[in-house]
Amino acid sequence: MELIQKIEEARAFITGKADHRPATGLILGSGLGSLADEIEDAVHIPYSEIPHFAKSGAVGHANELVIGRLNGRSVAAMKGRFHYYEGFTLEEVTFPVRVMKALGVSDLIITNACGSVNEGFKPGDLMLITDHLNLTGTNPLIGPNIDELGTRFPDLTRAYDKKLRSLALRTADQLGFGLREGVYAWWSGPAYETPAEIRMIRTLGADAVGMSTVPESIVAAHAGLRVLGISCLTNMAAGILDQPLSHDEVIEVAANVRGKFVDLVKGVLEGMEEA
Ligand code: HPA
Fold first, then answer.
1. d(CA 36, CA 64)
2. For this structure, is 235 an active site residue?
3. Is-contact 168 162, C-beta < 8 A?
4. Cα–Cα distance list, 128 to 16, 41, 246 (Å)
5. Quick check: is 113 catalytic?
6. How many CB atoms within 10 Å of residue 167?
7. pLDDT tens-digit map of 17-76
8. What pTM did the predictor assign?
9. What was the pLDDT predicted at 272?
């Protein structure tokens, strides 16, 4: 079946389940899914029910689309995402972004848990993504271009919207905490990086490294969506500290910043209309 038709079937299914017409999409990363619990008047749709959605088994993810209102704004939140390292194709990984666009979303907040490559940052810090490095050598837009979905050669100069970043900075300031800003590097995983790879990634100009976000951002740019990328730095990247990395630590640290993260996203949603 053609991709366009798959998107339409998923859109029609979701529209039939929920009355809300979401304006903002949220992709909630590892340990950050509890933000979806704040959504009011919520309709929960398991990914397994949505036509053409892949089925994710990643630990720490709930795998459902939650549609409702958050701080007065209609949102569609992905509680759990699809990762390339799980074996999904990049079309599967980014399919929900295309469906969100079809649902009428204009802004997408993409979040993740990631490792800090920048030695001046620390676990528990939140970082706005200013730009990315795609270190995987692949791209979700490889293949015939579907002109209805976007242009063949999308510009990524402004992949991470400056106005939304300013809004996030103002919001955090009002809430009384700071935000880091930096470049996120996409590493396919699932193995964490080696210390030598982290030195390489730092030399290349990244502040953070993780296994998601970039494919979704590229497809969002293709679709003409404004993107705000928020990373939760859950650990110092490999080799910075004399200790091993663990997924449990990633989930624990992400869960510990829940309060800050929820307040930030809610505040951003409040100002989104004017941004
Ligand atoms: N590297 C890659 N992905 C990650 C990390 C990391 O250190 N922490 C959380 N996700």
1. 10
2. yes
3. no
4. 35, 29, 23
5. yes
6. 20
7. 999 999 999 999 988 888 999 999 999 999 999 999 997 665 545 899 999 999 989 999
8. 0.96
9. 87
Q: In this structure, which residue's CA is closest to atom 7 in ligand 1?
A: 115
Query: Of all protein residues, whose CA lies closest to atom 10 belonging to ligand 1?
Result: 114
For the Cβ of 18 lying below 6 angstroms from any atom of ligand 1, the answer is no
Q: Is 83 a catalytic residue?
A: yes
The string of pLDDT tens digits covering residues 110-148 is 999 999 999 999 999 999 999 999 999 999 999 999 999
Of residues 83, 172, 184, 231, which has the active-site annotation?
Answer: 83
Q: How far is CA 135 from CA 46, 194, 198, 231, in A?
A: 31, 14, 12, 17
Residue type, 30: S
Find the length of the chain: 275
For residue 74, the cross-strand partners are 69
Report the greatest alpha carbon distance in the chain: 52
